[in-house]
Design the sequence.
């Protein structure tokens, strides 16, 4: 038992038992599935491999394991583009004899958190394990439903993620620096205020910086920004001026589509796609001086080589610093892997939204549900 949450050891005898394991197998795919066939391929199986310690712990002790996950965001009905087939094939290579149900979000009861869907999932099930850290910020049926009636536990991955991220939040080594970027601006702005209570410095790059620039009255051209959030950013800046580091140079495409380097303003018709070399160097200094760093969200559109430099420089600083380093989020983890630096940081989290919400609140709906399990 860890903080009132049962672990695998608290399940008792698992031999001969049927165990439902909620995993987050929401992996990146390329290719298409349609009437002509399915040529989808998994581009990164990190989330599948991350669940293996739990699956193996159970199968080695004679349990029969049924895994289930969502994949993408289908709209509550079956859709071949989101079927679990490619995941099932990969799982069969990594863990023979393990069942995998079809995409949980093919039923509206999953995101609707319906009791009927939970009852369907737990029918014939003896034990429930949540190892889906990346989805544990969602109060969906398969995350919060089974522990109401079935003896439950957190899996090894969930245990590790919670241990590392709550360690950052509750025993920060200072200076503690958060680096935020990416494109899910409105999702993440909600977390910025809470993070500022916890960290000593907040470094902002990616598309997120443009909403802050707009709040400072700077020109941002046609760069991605959220008009509704400008007032929020102005308030955040006014209250935390000394803590926030924004880029002071940028690169992007000018009104003629030509590669351009600017100061912290984007001329009319231009689009900023990465932080500039001066900002990348300044951000590196902040990361090198830290004793703990949490990074979520690429510094630019790194999928395009012309705009990968900021993300690559920050990734290299994460690898080089003596600080304890944690990276969360699908795209940030993919960027690290692309630069072959994923082994150089202390922890790569399988959850982006989940890691931010855990840092913000110190808890997640999936963890609270486990604390209420019959065996807790
Ligand atoms: N300046 C920018 N303009 C447009 N897109 C950007 C910019 N900076 C980063 N991005 C995009 O943000 C995406 C990742 O954002 P996000 O999903 O928030 O990160 P994560 O998955 O790590 O949480 C990447 O696909 C990247 O191309
Ligand atoms: O990929 C996920 O989240 P992430 O992109 O925040 O890491 C999880 O599988 C949750 O998926 P969702 O954001 O569709 O609920």
Sequence:
């Amino acid at each position: 038992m860890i903080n009132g949450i049962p672990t695998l050891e608290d399940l008792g005898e698992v031999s001969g038992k049927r165990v439902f394991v909620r995993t987050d197998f929401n992996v990146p795919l390329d290719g298409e599935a349609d009437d002509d066939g399915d040529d989808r391929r998994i581009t990164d199986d990190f989330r599948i491999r991350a669940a293996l310690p739990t699956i193996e712990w159970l199968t080695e002790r004679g349990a029969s394991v049924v895994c289930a996950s969502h994949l993408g965001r289908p709209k509550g009905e079956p859709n071949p583009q989101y079927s679990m087939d490619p995941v099932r094939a990969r799982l069969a290579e990594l863990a023979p004899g393990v069942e995998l149900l079809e995409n949980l979000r093919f039923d509206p009861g999953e995101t609707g958190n319906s009791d009927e869907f939970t009852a369907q999932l737990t029918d014939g099930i003896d034990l429930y394990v949540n190892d889906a850290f990346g989805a544990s910020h969602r109060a969906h049926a398969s995350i919060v439903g089974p522990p109401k009636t079935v003896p439950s536990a957190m899996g090894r991955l969930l245990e590790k993620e919670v241990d590392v991220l709550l360690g950052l939040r509750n025993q920060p080594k200072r200076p503690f620096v958060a680096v935020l970027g990416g494109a899910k601006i409105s999702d993440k702005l909600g977390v910025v205020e809470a993070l500022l209570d916890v960290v000593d410095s907040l470094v902002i790059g990616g598309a997120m910086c443009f909403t802050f620039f707009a709040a400072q009255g700077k020109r941002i051209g046609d760069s991605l920004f959220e008009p509704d959030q400008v007032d929020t950013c102005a308030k955040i800046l006014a209250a935390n001026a000394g803590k926030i580091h924004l880029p002071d140079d940028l690169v992007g495409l000018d009104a003629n589509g030509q590669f351009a380097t600017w100061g912290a303003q984007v001329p009319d018709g231009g689009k900023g796609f990465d932080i500039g070399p001066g900002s990348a160097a300044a951000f590196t200094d902040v990361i090198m001086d830290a004793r703990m760093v949490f990074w979520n969200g690429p510094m630019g559109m790194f999928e395009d080589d012309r705009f990968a430099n900021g993300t690559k420089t920050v990734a290299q600083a994460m690898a080089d610093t003596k600080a304890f380093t944690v990276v969360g989020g699908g795209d940030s983890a993919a960027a690290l892997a692309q630069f072959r630096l994923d082994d150089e940081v202390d922890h790569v989290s399988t959850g982006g939204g989940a890691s931010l919400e855990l840092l913000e609140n110190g808890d997640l709906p999936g963890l609270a549900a486990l604390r209420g399990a019959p065996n807790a």
